[in-house]
Structures are given as C-alpha cells and as structure tokens.
C-alpha cells in the first residue's frame, strides 16, 4: 500500500509541474511571422492569449526577407524600424518574458510592418509575489518606458523552423502532458491493485 501512495504523490507532483510550466506561443501559428491576411489577425490572436512571466514567443520567418524588431510604443505606431531596442534576424527567434507589461514587436521590413506585420503583447503581473496592491495609474499617466535590455532573456530556439505546427500556441502541449500524466497514473493503478 505504501507503494501506491508513493506512486500517487509522484504522479500528482508531475501533473502539477507540467500544468504550472511556462508556455511557448508560436506567433502566426503554422504560417509563422509574416504579413497577415487580416489586418487585425495578430491583435486578435494576442487578445485571446494569457501571457505570463516565464512564457515565450516563437517567431519563425524567412530570414532573408524578414526579421523581428522589439520597439517602444512610438516606433510601433509609426513602423519605425530604425529605433528598435533589439532586432532579431535568425529566422527562428525565441523571446522570453521576464517582466510584466507591454511588449511591442514589428517586422524589421518596414513594408511588411506597414501591412500589419506587428504585434503588441501584454504580459500579466505575477500576483503570487505581491505583498501590497499598487494604486491604479491615472488616466493622464504616460505609457510605460520600453523594457531595459537587462530585463529580457533571448534564447535560441530548439524548434525546427521547417516543422509544421497544428497549434497556434504551446498551451495544447501543456494539456497533452497533463493528460499523459493522468493516463499514466490511472494505468499504474492496474499494476498496484
């Protein structure tokens, strides 16, 4: 019976760790980072996601014709590629969120940016470590400054850019891992009993 309890605790710990892990979102889904068919495509996609500190974006694009630029809000609105905070041109960029707040991305190809290849992501605050509530910002407050370079982590991707994806984000992979853990637990019950 002790083996059963050990197996139960181990399975539950595995399920919780998978469910609590960070998510990698593939920008643009299977077609990747490119000029969208619908001008609202990236905005609508970002509004449907819950981005948290520790999550990351995967940008897959043709490196010879496109790139990704992290910019401030002003450069985002004007598609100003000359004032980027950071530019990525490897064709397979992973950007990890290490702080909450807005992040502005545009295509490094100004023509593509003008065709709505741009994205705003708002990362939620980490409420688990808050000790007090901050006052609400006034409506006349200026927008937050761009992220300092020291607060961002850039990671090379281990994903093959030629590999297709049926999911527009990594959340389904997390759910599949959770389901596999539950299935393994139920299957192990047959061996214990």
TrEMBL record:
Residue ranges of every copy of the Phytocyanin domain listed in the record: 23-125
Subcellular location: Endomembrane system; Membrane
Domain of life, per lineage: Eukaryota
Record has DNA damage as a keyword: no
Signal peptide: 1-19
Renumbered residue ranges of the record's region Disordered: 130-169
Transmembrane parts of this sequence: 175-192
Membrane topology, from the record: Lipid-anchor; GPI-anchor
Biased composition (Low complexity): 130-141
Sequence ranges of Polar residues compositional bias: 156-169
InterPro entries membership: Cupredoxin, ENL_dom, Phytocyanin-like, Phytocyanin_dom
GO MF terms held by the record: electron transfer activity
The entry's keywords: Disulfide bond, Glycoprotein, GPI-anchor, Lipoprotein, Membrane, Signal, Transmembrane, Transmembrane helix
A GO CC term assigned to this protein in UniProt: plasma membrane
Family to which the UniProt record says this protein belongs: Belongs to the early nodulin-like (ENODL) family.
Full protein name: Phytocyanin domain-containing protein
Species: Asparagus officinalis
């Amino acid at each position: 019976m002790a083996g059963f309890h050990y197996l139960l605790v181990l399975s539950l710990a595995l399920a919780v760790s998978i469910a609590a892990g960070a998510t990698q979102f593939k920008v643009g889904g299977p077609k990747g980072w490119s000029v969208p068919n619908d001008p609202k495509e990236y905005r609508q996609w970002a509004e449907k996601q819950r981005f948290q500190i520790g999550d990351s974006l995967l940008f897959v694009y043709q490196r010879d014709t496109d790139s990704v630029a992290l910019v401030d809000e002003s450069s985002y609105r004007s598609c100003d590629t000359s004032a980027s905070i950071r530019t990525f041109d490897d064709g397979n960029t992973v950007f990890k969120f290490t702080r909450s707040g807005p992040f502005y991305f545009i295509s490094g190809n100004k023509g593509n940016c003008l065709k709505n290849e741009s994205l705003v992501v708002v990362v939620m605050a980490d409420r688990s470590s808050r000790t007090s509530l901050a006052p609400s910002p006034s409506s006349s407050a200026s927008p937050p400054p761009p992220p300092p370079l020291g607060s961002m982590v850039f990671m090379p991707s281990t994903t093959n850019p030629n590999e297709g994806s049926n999911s527009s984000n990594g959340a389904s992979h997390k759910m599949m891992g959770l389901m596999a853990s539950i299935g393994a637990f139920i299957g192990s019950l047959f061996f214990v009993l």
